[in-house]
Specification:
It is built from 16 helices and 14 strands. It has three domains: about 80 residues, Winged helix-like DNA-binding domain superfamily/Winged helix DNA-binding domain (Arc Repressor Mutant, subunit A, Orthogonal Bundle), CATH 1.10.10.10; about 250 residues, Type I PLP-dependent aspartate aminotransferase-like (Major domain) (Aspartate Aminotransferase, domain 2); about 100 residues, Aspartate Aminotransferase, domain 1 (Alpha-Beta Complex). The protein has about 500 residues and is an alpha/beta fold. It starts with about 20 loop residues before the first helix and ends with a helix. The protein is globular, with a radius of gyration of 30 Å. The strands form three sheets. The chain has an eight-stranded mixed beta sheet, sandwiched between helices. Strands 11-12-14-13 form a four-stranded antiparallel beta sheet, covered by helices on one side. A two-stranded antiparallel ribbon has the order 1-2. α1 crosses α3, α5 runs antiparallel to α9 and α6 crosses α13. Helix content is about 40%, strand content about 15%. The longest helix has 27 residues.
């Protein structure tokens, strides 16, 4: 009888009658976890199956089944005439226990990119959508019914979207994008020049991996989008910072300081966050530098759809006669961020390389999403949506400027460019923008400080606010709340 009582007490074994998992599986999983975590060490003898069965209120046959399964998996072993033991072949001190004893500050062994990624932030899209959140389209005006109809048209076809897609993206979507670019951006291309990616950042990543090696230089506007600069640094590139003025990137200065850079990342249609456009002389100088130095230009066509004074500006790619521009676009702002569809328009010489690399990295963007988007564009709904949003954002921009100019008098100066979804609020009296942001957040609004976007340059304090997600009738109220926040010391 004494032998039957030998073995450790196992207080961690608990049966939960409120879940669907069978009782034998609950015991089996808990014993396995206890062994892996070191609570039951190698060589430990378990209580007899009859004793365990009585303690847990199970049949002995059930416990025997559990022990036999764990023996088959290698966690337990039977010793003739002695009982059941935790397998002696397992490490006596599991890896998790050894790591805990050395301290939680011991970093894991990472790749170079893994190490670089630890020092930057990738948080995006987790910000609560409060009034004046930058870069936020008017999601309340999205044509959900039409989009759902396009989606249903696609899925009604059965298994069309259930397999792997073309590594470059579905041909019908590439055709629709090419038609849109030719008609609305005055930038015709062959659908074969287009590669579909899971968003804009995936497009940038693909271009960098295909065209540059770690340590190569890339011209980057300062200030510039922080998530993109973090991405480029993480990929091992050397950021060659170029100043930005009223005419966009200072190309002449960059040519003198960084003549041997491999890439240039530029937002010529609308710089983020300053809202300026790259002048034609500077565009031509940038193209000539790329041609002469066999460098490449990544053109981020940021917010090009939403220009309120005249037609959208032509892209740089449309005036590139030497095939040095890689054009990147996405549907995150034009439709909604969660759609995660971007694209590249490539010089013909790069198409094969980018297709192969995209297939190796991304495999394909979800086919049903691509087909629904192609249906949405092909049915004329995308162009109609852009027209409606352009008109709506223009009204909200004017309402924000009118309300803010009055409410913020003496506190800040407004800078509403003629395109995009955001405005800059330049703070008066040398106020520091991070402190001002904290006051705005406490007031229940949202904004970003300009200093978060600057790397080496020094600029006056400013806040970036988005007006596109604020209804016109609420603009005056929120502007007064903003003014009250900024008036606090």
């Amino acid at each position: 009888m004494a032998k039957q009582l030998e073995g450790p007490i196992l207080p961690f074994l608990r049966l939960d009658t409120g879940i669907a998992l069978p009782k034998f599986r609950q015991v089996q999983d808990q014993l396995r976890t206890a062994i892996l975590q070191g609570h039951l060490r190698a060589g430990t003898r378990l209580p007899a199956s009859r004793i365990l069965a009585e303690e847990l209120g199970l049949s002995r046959q059930t416990l025997v089944r559990v022990l036999e399964n764990l023996k088959a998996e290698g966690y337990l072993e039977a010793r003739q005439g002695a009982g059941t033991f935790v397998s002696a072949a397992l490490p006596r001190r599991p890896a998790k226990a050894r790591f805990a004893e050395t301290g939680d500050d011991v970093p894991p062994r990472l790749s170079r990119i893994g190490v670089l990624s630890r020092g930057v932030s990738a948080e995006i899209g987790r910000v609560e959508p409060k009034p004046f959140l930058p870069n936020q389209p008017a999601l309340d005006r999205f044509p959900f019914a039409i989009w759902r109809k396009c989606w249903n048209t696609v899925v009604r076809g059965g298994r069309a979207g259930m397999g792997y897609g073309d590594v470059a993206g579905e041909l019908v979507l590439r055709q629709r994008i090419a038609e849109y670019l030719a008609l609305h951006r005055r930038d015709p291309c062959d659908p074969e020049q287009i590669v579909i990616t899971p968003g804009g950042h995936a497009a940038f990543t693909l271009a960098v991996l295909a065209l540059a090696d770690p340590g190569d230089g890339i011209w980057f506007e300062d200030p510039g989008p922080v998530t993109t600069s973090n991405l480029l640094r993480t990929l091992g590139l050397n950021l060659c910072l170029a100043d930005v003025d009223a005419d966009g990137m200072d190309v002449a200065d960059a040519m003198v300081r960084y003549p041997d850079a491999r890439l240039a990342f530029v937002m010529p249609s609308r710089h983020h966050p300053l809202g300026v456009t790259l002048s034609l002389p500077r565009r031509l100088a940038l193209l000539e530098w790329a041609r002469a130095n066999e460098a490449w230009i990544i053109e981020d066509d940021y917010d090009s759809e939403f220009r309120y004074d005249g037609a959208p500006l032509p892209s740089m790619r449309s005036i590139d006669s030497h095939g040095r521009v890689i054009y990147a676009g996405s549907f995150s702002k034009a439709l909604y961020p969660g759609i995660r569809v971007g694209y590249l328009v490539l010089p013909p010489a790069l198409v094969g390389t980018f297709r192969n690399l995209s297939g190796l990295i991304h495999r394909s963007v979800p086919v049903e999403t691509q087909l629904a988007l192609a249906e949405f564009i092909g049915g004329g709904h995308f162009a109609s949506h852009l027209r409606r949003m352009r008109s709506l954002y223009a009204e909200r921009r004017n309402a924000f400027f009118d309300a803010g100019r009055t409410a913020l008098a003496g506190l800040a100066a407004l800078d509403c460019s003629d395109s995009g979804l955001n405005a800059l609020v330049w703070l008066a009296n040398g106020r520091e923008d991070r402190a001002a942001q904290r006051a705005v957040l406490e007031a229940g609004l949202q904004c970003y400080p300009l200093s978060d976007y600057t790397i080496a340059t020094t600029r006056p304090g400013a806040l970036i606010l988005g007006y596109a997600n604020v209804p016109e009738e609420r603009m005056k109220t929120y502007s007064h709340v903003l003014a009250e926040a900024l008036s606090r010391p």
